[in-house]
Write a structure and sequence with these properties.
CATH topology of the largest domain: Rna Polymerase Sigma Factor, Chain: A
CATH architecture of the largest domain: Orthogonal Bundle
CATH superfamily of the largest domain: RNA polymerase sigma factor, region 2, helix turn helix motif
Oligomer: single chain
Helix content: 55-70%
Radius of gyration: 18 Å
Order of helices and strands: HHHHHHH
CATH class of the largest domain: Mainly Alpha
Number of helices: 7
Number of strands: 0
Number of domains: 2
């Protein structure tokens, strides 16, 4: 089972975590959870859908833990106990009208996606980066296809608004 799903689980985790090492660690947690909970699998969806749902949940849990640590770091900074963390994109030396190379565009897009509300971020990531269908996303998120479509619509609209200042052409 691990061999069959390992690559897709790691890739799914990577899309959320942006670190191959973190994705591999979380993938191990996913398979441990699958092993522990296999008796609880009710068969209401495909096994793969259930595994990917655990992947998304574990990835989001990891991000939440990391954000808590980051907030603690920010508090330490305010108190003069640590270095300041900056989660805004560094666009020094470039202008919104300027040409961005692919790496810069990718960095800004990743930053913008990371700032979306969690449900929109998950839907956008699964749809655009992992190529899941709306039905598969609905199964993973345990919601309806129309709810997924609404999440994707709002997420893309929010991305467009956030990215407009960086990319003035080609956005509608």
């Amino acid at each position: 089972m691990v061999e069959m799903h390992q690559d897709r689980v790691i890739n799914t985790c990577y899309r959320f975590l942006k670190s191959r090492e973190d994705a591999t660690d979380v993938a191990q947690e996913v398979f441990m959870q699958v092993y522990k909970s296999l008796d609880d699998f009710r068969g209401e969806s495909q096994l793969s859908t259930w595994i990917y749902r655990i992947s998304v949940t574990k990835s989001l849990d990891f991000i939440r833990r990391k954000n808590r640590q980051r907030r603690l770091g920010s508090v330490k900074t305010i108190l003069g106990l640590g270095s300041e963390l900056n989660d805004l994109p560094d666009n020094s030396g470039s202008t919104p009208e300027g040409d961005f190379d692919d790496a810069e565009r990718g960095r800004i897009l990743s930053w913008a996606v990371s700032k979306l509300p969690e449900s929109q971020r998950v839907a956008i990531t699964l749809s655009n980066y992992e190529s899941y269908t709306n039905q598969e996303i609905a199964d993973i998120l345990q919601t309806s296809v129309s709810a997924v479509e609404a999440l994707l619509h709002r997420g893309r609209k929010n991305l467009g608004s956030r990215l407009q200042k960086y990319f003035t052409t080609g956005l509608k």
